[in-house]
Design brief:
Elements (H helix, E strand, L loop, with lengths): L6 H14 L3 H8 L4 E5 L11 H9 L4 E8 L5 E3 L20 H5 L19 H8 L4 E6 L8 H11 L10 E5 L2 H10 L5 E5 L7 H7 L5 E4 L6 H9 L3 E7 L2 H10 L3 E4 L12
Parallel strand pairs: 1-2, 1-9, 2-4, 4-5, 5-6, 6-7, 7-8, 8-9
Antiparallel strand pairs: 2-3
Length: 277
């Protein structure tokens, strides 16, 4: 977990250990490393993203986690949708922040993907927590939290109400592209793993990674940034690495070979969690 008072000592031990076991990493990988299979917005390659249909499909496909995007309605309710507007994935128009929960729930969030999904609703954050905790891990992404003052506190409250703010409970991780939001979330939920998302190479420097490690447990870059060297450097400072978004078998295979800890994918069947190469 983060806030590792043992970080410097641990890093030194890792370096010392590596001097005497140069083939340990490659041997471990060859034996088969467990890679978490994270269904991006649910199994969104097969069902409308961020809907119950997509999340149920991910459970059926035996993914380890569902990844969800959380935003906040006009009346302060937490809802699960990716874009800041409803235009792309529903039959409505307008920004999430301008629509009440009742207005959002009246929209059809499924028919754009296929007639069989007609009537799918935008889920609430609470609905997702209550339906899936204990069934599958939940990777919670705070989308554009800068638009929603108090969002971090609301997320923390909903988790604490369900006793999901402790690491021995169901698998919960929180991530965002907004680093300040993640620092705040870390202070509100010190026992919940935190992830930082990025698609920028400037966030892969030694200095940047060490700064992230002071409040985050996961460094989660676009697969385009991933190299074996980056994976090794992230691991060397005690963090894990999850990469996104996989939409081809080739990309999944590349990430598996690179040694990442988790793969975030629209197609959970592209990732075999028992495979490391």
């Amino acid at each position: 977990m983060k806030r590792r008072t043992f970080l410097s000592t641990g890093f030194a031990l890792i370096l010392l250990f590596s001097l005497f076991t140069p083939n340990f990493a490659s041997a471990s990988a060859a034996e088969g490393k467990k890679v978490d299979n994270v269904a991006h917005r649910g199994a969104s390659g097969y069902a409308p993203e961020n809907t119950i249909a997509a999340f149920d499909k991910a459970v059926d496909m035996k993914a380890d986690y569902i990844e969800i995007d959380v935003q906040q309605s006009k009346d302060g309710q937490l809802v699960v949708i990716h874009d800041t507007s409803v235009d792309r994935t529903t039959d409505g128009t307008g920004y999430i922040s301008d629509l009440t929960l009742e207005e959002l729930r009246s929209l059809d969030a499924g028919s754009w993907k296929g007639e069989e999904f007609t009537g799918e609703k935008i889920p609430t954050f609470e609905e997702v927590l209550d339906r899936y905790r204990g069934k599958i891990g939940i990777l919670i992404e705070l989308k554009s939290p800068e638009l929603y003052p108090g969002m971090e506190e609301s997320i923390a409250l909903k988790l604490k109400e369900r006793n999901l703010d402790k690491p021995r409970n169901e698998k919960i991780i929180i991530q965002s592209f907004n680093f300040e939001s993640m620092k705040l979330t870390n202070s509100l939920l010190p026992r919940v793993p935190i992830g930082v998302l990025t698609s920028s190479s400037k966030d892969t420097t030694e200095q940047a990674l060490r700064e992230f490690s002071t409040y985050a447990d996961y460094f989660n870059p676009s697969y385009r940034l991933v190299t074996k060297d980056l994976v090794n450097r992230v691991h060397s400072i005690g963090m894990k690495i999850s990469s996104w978004t996989v939409r081809s078998q080739e990309t999944a295979d590349f990430l598996l070979e690179s040694g990442v800890d988790a793969i975030i994918t629209d197609y959970p069947d592209y990732v075999n969690p028992r495979k490391s190469n």
